[in-house]
Amino acid sequence: MLVSYQWLKDYVDIDDIGVEETAERLTRGGVEVDMLHPRSEGIQNVVVGYVEACDPHPEADKLRVCRVNTGGETASIVCGAPNIKAGQKVITAKPGAVLPGGMKIEKTTLRGQESEGMICSLQEIGIEQKLVMKQFMDGIYVFPENAETGGDAIEELALRDTVLELDLTPNRPDCLSMLGVAYEMAALLDRDVIHPETGHQENSESASDYISVQVDVPEDNPYYGAKVVKNIVISASPQWIQNRLTAAGIRPINNVVDITNYVLMEYGQPLHAFDLDKLGSSEIVVRRAQDGESMTTLDEEERTLSSEHMVITNGKEPAALAGVMGGAFSEVQEDTTTVLLEAAYFKPARVRKTSRETGIRSESSIRFEKGIDSGRVEEAAERAAALLEKYAGGEVLQGTVEVDNRPAENKKIQTSTAQLNRLLGMEMSAEEVLSIFRRLRLPAVENNSGIMVEVPTRRPDLDIEVDLAEEAARLYGYEYIPTTLPKGVTTPGFLTADQRKRRRMRRYLERAGLHEALTYTLTSPSHSGRLQLQELPGKVEVTMPMSEERSTMRTSLLPQLLDTVQYNRNRQITDAAVFEMGSIFIGEEGNTLTTQPQEKNVLAAAVTGWWDAHLWQGEKKKTDFFVVKGVLEGLFEEIGIFDHIEFIRSDHNELHPGRSADIYLDGKYAGFLGQMHPSVEKEWEIKETYVFQLDVDLLLTFEADPLFYETVPRYPAVTRDIALVVEEQVTAGEVRRVIAEAGGSLLHQVTLFDVYQGEKLEPGQKSLAFSLVYLDPERTLTDEEVAETHNHVLSELQEKVKASLRK
Amino acid sequence: MIDRLQELGKEAIQEIRDADSVKALESVRVKYLGKKGPITEVLRGMGQLSEEERPKVGQKANEVREEIQSKLEEKTAELEEKALEEKLKAESVDVTLPGKEVKRGARHPLTAVVEEIEDIFVGLGFQVTEGPEVETDLYNFEKLNLPPEHPARDMQDSFYVTTDMLLRTQTSPVQARTMEKYEGQGPVKIVCPGKVYRRDDDDATHSHQFMQIEGLYVDHNVRMSDLKGVLEAFVQKYFGADRSIRLRPSFFPFTEPSVEVDVSCGICGGHGCRLCKHTGWIEVLGSGMVHPRVLEMSGFDPDTYSGFAFGMGVERFAMLKYGIDDIRHFYTNDIRFLNQFKRV
Ligand SMILES: [Zn+2]
Q: Are A342 and A271 in contact (CB under 8 A)?
């Protein structure tokens, strides 16, 4: 909503308040002023000029040389506007004038002709193109004849004004009108509201002789009023109406349309003017459209309607989409003489539906959708009739033809000073509360239970007692509400065990050298389904996506982490280690949903480039499988599940077949790690990248073993190093398991310290070297005991994995 | 003989003095004190001496030996010290060379903000609750006092996945779900962080996905002044003890009265600057008293219970805190951006 400060002063005395203070008061009161737009800041020396003569430029076809009277003096001005003519009154910038943006006008010579100033278009003095009347859009603006030659053009155009741009919350549709804003200011300042003049003459005829009204849908249209105005002469509106509409962001068209728009802005009451002669009947019927019925709206668009839409018909065919837009065939045009003025109250829901489904949003539909003042419809109609009489030569016929099904009584809300104080934590007196209701013009009477407040139709947002509490608080001032702490029982605050564990996992990964990333949940169909933990029954898709890029809920965090690697690589950042913890979304078969989808918390990472690059000492380590595995092993240790984890070669087809592993937690599949399959790396245009993805929900279900202290060894340990030769397909894990089992309770620790494969061995063989530590916490082991166990280990190795000692 | 010993002593001490290495010193020791050394030799000739002279010569020989020995030790210590000095000198490093980097990652700034806020409210006796990101219309709208035709649904055009399920547009459905779990028994003191989604085109100030933290306090006799007190405590913990808050009337369907909460500008101290658009205040929270219908729909009796709710945008807090000017940075994951948050 755009509110002209000068216009607002018609309805409430705020001369002494000023623009800035008005804006501040409104904002502090809950009607937020988003911005102030001064309309003519810096413009100087621009007057109404009278074009006395307009001759062709001797050197240029498209230019004219005009003699312009600027009030007591004449100037020769070269002008290129196609619509310039002698006898016009035009916006003239004199030498020394300043135009918007600081542009200075000086005497100049154009193609050999001196030009003492400039004749301006409205755009050149800062009016938006879309607000300029069509006939002046491509040329200069022409004042009505009664403009005073030499007068201040800025004054004439009422540009010494500031427009307040309101950012209205949905509960305050009353402020979608000048009067509504005036009521608000009046309440805040405790001043009077001045209503516009609605008085007009009536001729001898009666509107009901011309038209009848039938409403088939009173539930959607509780009130419909039709007035008839004859002998209209269509012309441009008076300058002041044009000025005010322009300030409100509405383009002037002609006097009849402008007057309906003017009253719309003034009262928030949408009006529609039909050309009664073109309507083609003497009846108005308000009904639902029929399915498939069509009509052409004012904008020349053919619309196909449904029974969900409400239309105004001439008894046969739709002449307007109720509350949204008029129809083409009954449009007011140059030749219109008799106007049917519609002033109705349409309920929000039906208008919203019609507006949504036809895709038309108009100043009317916006107001009906949010709720107009159903009690001010007739006053607005009379105001429009008065203006049509005065500025369009109209004769208003007697009476209004109406169908009225509005409730007879206003809503009432019971409250009390005590209850309001209880809700707000304040100590207002009854007098203060009553005075607030008086300022808001809410009729209030004291009764046995406290105060009974009547809610005028102006404020449909006031419904229950707490709404009155808000009115009291905002008028009293929130700054006067004390600051207290709740009196209730105190409760301990805490994070749940899972929440703490999730934090701990993230913290660990940061310390391990990975950056935390956050990617979008919505992704493309090509990304979803990729790099998943496991096959999923279906995806979750957005029914009306904004773009294909963001149309599907992610089923894995990895595709977008790979995007992250690629994004950085495209910016010459080739070392990246990122992780993300978040939800994936599991749909149902066929990608349709019958219940809320499962949301699984997962943790994923992508690591590429140098893991360690300590440059000047020449130590460098490229990220490889074991770097990432090491990070994961540390993570499992961090949350106490390390001893329950097993890595098994993976057959995930998007991973490198030789460098990937599935991860199991006590036999349950918990995720995977590995290098991306080179073909996937190629697809993403990234280099060797290692990833993992874990099912966090599963990890969290696991109760870590309680942490108990183990005696620090008091007796010496015995260490035996062995280098084994095995067939290359035998895994270190298998060998280790054999050692661990055979070593029994005396074997305290097994550490792999070397892996070798190469020319010193037979082809197909490899060597694994382990360090075995034997220890009994209770006593010193004898050489014989150690030898016995160690030999058992060696023979088991020989038997189970064909391992021999390396010579 | 005594003179000879005297002489040998002098010679030895001179050679010790001249020795410039531990090795040279060792050869001096062998030369004079070894079994074949001149002193031993002199002693061997003692048989020719008289009874009286023998002890004298013996004593002298010992004196000379001891003197040589002690000079040797002295010189050895001296040389060792010198050698150590040289070794240390050779081992010295350029202390301005960079140390070996300990690899560390950074916390995402949005996570940092969420956790800081969670911790403050945990300190105020709140618990942290979470809920689904794909919500039903019932919980995302209706139970929050937004019936199907409510105009406020305009404010939050949403991503629907079916006719009655959508990506939540706010984290408040978690509040409705949590209240139901309490079965009408207060107090309820929760904060709900999470991702939310709205149909906005991504630009410097809009994101179709962003994070919110909402909070709820429901108990007997909770007053608007309590809202003011709790939020002031929060704001002062988060932004600093010198900050103050201001309430401005606003509108949210699930609260009445509803307010925007402004915090005094930390840059200009309230005098007005660019950050606060010359108002001295910065909008940080939406809040209000829980609408009686919302309480009722979630199983609480609005005649005996009241409460307040509040919500804040995590991105906004992070942008204010770290001076970030484009919301898209949070989701682009440029390493050069992420890397800056190692010490959050
Ligand atoms: Zn400031």
A: yes
Decide the pairing of beta strands A302-304 and B188-197: unpaired
DSSP one-letter code for A283: E
How many independent structural domains does chain B possess?
2
A494 and B CB contact within 8 Å:
yes
Domain A412-475, what architecture?
Answer: 2-Layer Sandwich (3.30)
B341/B344 Cα distance (integer angstroms): 5
Closest-CA residue of B relative to A483 is B229
Pick the more confident residue, B146 or B217.
B217
In the prediction, which pLDDT does B43 show?
A: 76
Domain A207-404, what architecture?
A: 3-Layer(bba) Sandwich (3.50)
A658-690 tens-digit pLDDT: 999 999 999 999 999 999 999 999 999 999 999
- How many A from CA of A218 to the centre of ligand 1? 54
* pLDDT of B155 over the 70 cut: no
User: Which of chain A's residues have a Cβ under 8 Å away from the Cβ of B109?
Assistant: none
pLDDT cut 90: percent of chain A above it: 84
Q: List CB contacts (< 8 A) between B230 and chain A.
A: 485-486
Q: H or E stretch including A21?
A: helix A19-29
For the domain A44-156, what is the CATH superfamily, name and number?
Nucleic acid-binding proteins (2.40.50.140)
- Cα(B128)–Cα(B191) distance, rounded to whole angstroms? 5
For residue B250, give the nearest of A169, A369, A481 by CB distance.
Answer: A169
| pLDDT tens digits for range A125-144 | 999 999 999 889 999 999 98
Q: Give the pair of three-digit tokens for residue B279.
A: 């108002």
Comparing CB atoms, the residue among A352, A517, A550 nearest residue B108 is A517
Q: Per CATH, is A718-805 categorized as 3.40.50.720?
A: no
In a domain, B97, yes or no: no
Residue A503 in contact with partner chain B when CB distance is under 8 A: yes
B269 Cα: distance to centroid of ligand 1 (angstroms):
6
Q: Which domain holds residue B68?
A: 2-91
**Residues of chain A neighbouring B185 (CB-CB closer than 8 A):** none
- Angle at the Cα of A216 (from A210 to A222), degrees rounded to 5? 90
The tokens describing B246, both together, are 């201001």
Nearest to B12 by CA among B61, B45, B79, B82: B61
CA distances (Å), A696 to each of A170, A661, B299, in order? Answer: 42, 17, 33
**φ and ψ at residue A385, rounded to 5 degrees:** -60, -40
Q: Which of B122, B251, B336 sits opposite A493 (nearest CB)?
A: B122
Scanning chain B, the segments in alpha helix (DSSP H) are: 2-18, 22-33, 38-44, 53-91, 109-123, 137-140, 172-181, 224-239, 292-297, 314-322, 329-332, 335-338
Q: Which chain A residues are within 8 Å of B126, Cβ to Cβ?
A: 493
Query: CB-CB: which of B134, B149, B160 is closest to A585?
Result: B134
DSSP string for B162-205 = ETTEEE-SSSHHHHHHHHHHTTT-S-EEEEEEEEEE-----SSS
What spacing in Å lies between the alpha carbon of B340 and ligand 1's midpoint?
25
Would the ipTM clear 0.90, i.e. be above it? no
Say which CATH topology domain A2-34+167-189 has.
Phenylalanyl-tRNA Synthetase; Chain B, domain 1 (3.30.56)
Tell me the pLDDT band of B154, cut-offs 50, 70 and 90.
Answer: low
Alpha helices in A233-320 (DSSP H): 239-247, 255-267, 276-279
Query: What are the residues facing A798 on neighbouring strands?
Result: none
Does residue B27 share a domain with residue B160?
no
Q: Which strand (E) or helix (H) includes residue A474?
A: helix A465-476
Mark yes or no for CB contact B229/A170 under 8 Å. no
For B111, the closest chain A residue by CA position comes to: A516
End-to-end CA distance of chain B: 86
Question: CATH assignment of A497-701, given 3.20.20.10, 3.40.710.10, 3.40.190.10, 3.30.930.10?
Answer: 3.30.930.10
